[in-house]
Amino acid sequence: MRGATHAKWAACAAAVALAATACGGGSGGGDGSGVVGSSWGDPQNPLEPANTNEVQGGKVLDMIFRGLKRYDPKTGEAKDMVAESIETKDSQTYTVKVKDGWKFSNGEAVTSKSFVDAWNYGAHLKNNQKGSYFFGYIEGYDKVHPEKGDPSADTLSGLKVVDARTFTVKLSQKFSTWPETLGYPAFAPLPKAFFDDRAAWLAKPVGNGPYSIKSYQKGSKMELRKWDDYSGDDKAQNGGVDLKVYTDNNIAYNDLMAGNLDLVDDVPAAQLRNVKNDLGDRYINTPAGIIQTLSFALYDSKWNKPGMEKVRKGLSMAINREQITETIFQKTRTPAKDWTSPVLGEDGGYSDSVCGDACEYDAAQAKKLVEEGGGIPGGTLKISYNADTGSHKEWVDAVCNSINKALGNNRSCVGNSIGTFADFRSQASQQKLDGAWRAGWQMDYPLIQNFLQPVYYTDAPSNDGKYNSKEFDELVDKANAETDTGKAVSTFQDAEKVLAKDMAAIPLWYQNGSAGYSDRVSDVSLNQFSVPVYAEIKVN
């Protein structure tokens, strides 16, 4: 997920207006019987399903919407939810049958049109949806969302409503695992009320999930309450969730310890040394579908000339991942061995050998490769990061110290602090950074394709470094066209081997999800996206 970073945090004590809500006392922070109080950050964008591509907004969408598929919180498997069936004979044209009886919380029926209208809206250029590219595989996308100029069509030609519960989808190419992507929030249905009065809907979104939104005060709190008439079998086990805005996760942690909050799903780095003693078995540290990497300015001729792949490989071997993940992250990170995530499993495409020696610390070989490749452009690698969230300075300094020690030069690597996440992301996405920068990916759906194509395919939406490989692109296209899932995964792995050969980005570590909760609640867990499974939480 692009921008898979928790929203900015700031001190509650300095914001008197928040004192009564985010830092107040009382029963774990819930304002009603059976209500869970949880830390949160304001979403970057209004909660339109196709316009939300960051974690905080995604948490809400997962509570108020259900799509055709839903990813099992424990296994990540894409299981039918609103879909009764999704069938195809050629992996290109799909017939989708919607289950009978599903409704939105305003009483509207969920129909095939609810999906088709929502997808057409999400894809269209004029609606400026950040997740519009998720509809890029559907035939006609180039007409409703051209790379240049105005749209020449209002709807996707590949979408057809057959009847109230049936619609067909024709893709522009074969894509055997396309149904597995349909648990992503961008593919959620929208009620007629959205199109009748979009402004009113945005003020109080209406979905078809286990919760409905009671109220939202930006900068303070969103109140969600259990929807008793929810159609699914994953009904809320609590009365609701109060998502409380914190701009400093240390304040949230302190409120948890004081009994003013039930759940913190982003344990601050400063508390990792204490959290096990503080919370015991109420501390969660579990693998998630998140990888952190170093991206390079491959749009800069200094970094994409012949030999630079050796330099990047040497820099990778100069990073002591084991030491950094143990000392800086207290084992809430695991040294990376590929460009995906272990949560995929071997059958899903994860490999612990594809990066090989390049992801192992070897100071002598690191120095040799950097010299053979012609040296670091300009003599110093600059690693850029945002200074406002995430305690990035500490690990960037540790990476640079490791590189400097391995290469025998204390100016081989330096950190470059950029004030805000927004400014940092703006510079990265507009190719204004030089050297390297902190990057990463939180999976949108548990497929190897999602870790590779959006980030490394030529001109892909999150290919900020502008990596360009015809060999990689052709293998991705071939993998997508495979009708056999096993062959598709194997071909994606072949594409990943090209990344390894080019060292397109340096894999650093896989990120675990971490959370802490009060003794007022039980059955707390994180799904494979590191998001709390709110509906399963019980209030004691």
Question: What can you tell me about this protein's structure?
Answer:
With 540 residues, this protein is α+β, with helices and mostly antiparallel strands. The protein has helices at 55-64, 112-123, 141-144, 192-196, 198-203, 249-257, 275-279, 301-304, 308-317, 321-327, 345-348, 363-372, 392-407, 421-429, 448-456, 470-481, 485-502, and strands spanning 35-40, 69-71, 78-80, 83-88, 93-98, 159-163, 166-170, 211-217, 221-226, 240-245, 263-264, 283-296, 333-335, 381-386, 413-418, 436-442, 505-517, 521-522, 538-539. The strands form five sheets. Strands 11, 12, 13, 14, 15, 16 and 17 form a seven-stranded mixed beta sheet that branches. Strand 8 and strand 9 (221-226) form a beta hairpin. Helix 15 (448-456) packs antiparallel against helix 16 (470-481) and helix 15 crosses helix 17. It is globular and about 70 Å long. The two termini are 34 Å apart. Residues 1-27 have low confidence and may be disordered.
